[in-house]
Amino acid sequence: MPITPTEKIWMDGELVDWDKAQIHVLTHTLHYGCGVFEGVRAYETAEGPAVFRLRDHIERLFDSAKIFMIDIPFTVEDLVEATRETVRVNGLPSCYIRPIVYLGYGEMGLNPLPSPVQVSIAVWPWGAYLGDDGVANGVRMKVSSWQRHSPNAMPPAAKGTGMYINSSMAKIEAIKSGYDEAILLSPQGYVSECTGENIFLVRDGVINTPPTAAGALEGITQDTVATIARDFGYEVVPTNILRSDLYTCDEAFLTGTAAEVVPIRSVDDREIGEPGPITRKIQETYAATVRGQVESYRGWLDYVNH
Ligand code: PPE
């Protein structure tokens, strides 16, 4: 999906022109992958653009940084405000938002601690991450031959830039094999998550999702969807899931800020089928929630104009 340039990017406290938002080739993070980022979305609402669960995303960014001992030279409040400002000045009704904290130019070598910590926030319009057809009819998944990294090799709780090589390898394999997206298993053999999304299964009316101990990121969309499902009266149980559970479930879907809620129609060529009723209900409610159309969830929206 090509990036559509917008006007301004926030860099270390200043708004700079899109084309001027550049870094040196000896930027530390480019060489060693020690950086942290977030993926956030702003949606068009009746009261102008609103960022969904902004503070939660920025707090997770700080948690990721803490894990890697990156000392962000801004406060949570600073970056919440900077995000709101970046969305506002670019004048987009809705957009994807990418805050990134990286180690800049100045030092080389594996000790990241002396490097300058830099922050930028870019926004651009971004459509359906797994395609409109995926949202409507479901995606075809492949269990990857690549494992999710062990928590003692790479901490899955951190959204670290370099960690995503694991996801990219799985994504390449899935696409080259003719599937839409991959599912990764933990080193213990349990279902972990997808390359950039959490996963949910429905069986006999009960909704399951892998726990963080299976190597899944603690997804903000995962939490949103679990809340919506529980408010509908469904039981949502974080539990270990086996590969074979993927083949025999009644419904399955994936969740993420970029992907939103996407039905899974097959796993390893075992058909799950058309998007099921629980998946549809959650997908529709999520779409309405992020646009401020569900009164009880409006507290999750951060309106950039007021
Ligand atoms: N697992 C992973 C590995 C992951 O990267 C994401 C977000 C999630 C789960 C879902 O988390 P949340 O967005 O809080 O519900 N992936 C982001 C990056 C995607 C990308 O292509 O880059 C995202 O969805 O923005």
Structure description:
Helices cover 28% and strands 28% of the residues. It is an alpha+beta fold and 306 residues long. It has two domains: 8-124, D-amino Acid Aminotransferase, Chain A, domain 1; 132-290, D-amino Acid Aminotransferase, subunit A, domain 2 (D-amino Acid Aminotransferase, Chain A, domain 2, Alpha-Beta Barrel). Strands 8, 9, 10, 11, 12, 13, 14, 15 and 16 form a nine-stranded mixed sheet that branches. Strand 11 (198-203) and strand 12 form a beta hairpin. Helix 2 packs across helix 3 (76-90). The two termini are 32 Å apart. Bound molecules: ligand PPE. The site of ligand PPE has 16 residues, from helix 6 and strand 14.
Topology:
Elements: E1 8-11, E2 14-17, H1 28-32, E3 35-37, E4 40-43, E5 50-52, H2 54-67, H3 76-90, E6 95-103, E7 117-124, H4 132-137, E8 139-147, H5 164-176, E9 181-185, E10 191-194, E11 198-203, E12 206-209, H6 220-231, E13 236-238, H7 243-248, E14 251-256, E15 260-267, E16 270-271, H8 277-290, E17 301-303
Parallel strand pairs: 8-9, 8-15, 12-13
Antiparallel strand pairs: 1-2, 1-7, 3-6, 4-5, 4-6, 5-17, 6-7, 9-10, 11-12, 11-14, 14-15, 15-16
The protein binds ligand PPE.
Ligand PPE binds at residues 39, 167, 193, 196-198, 217, 219-222, 255-259.
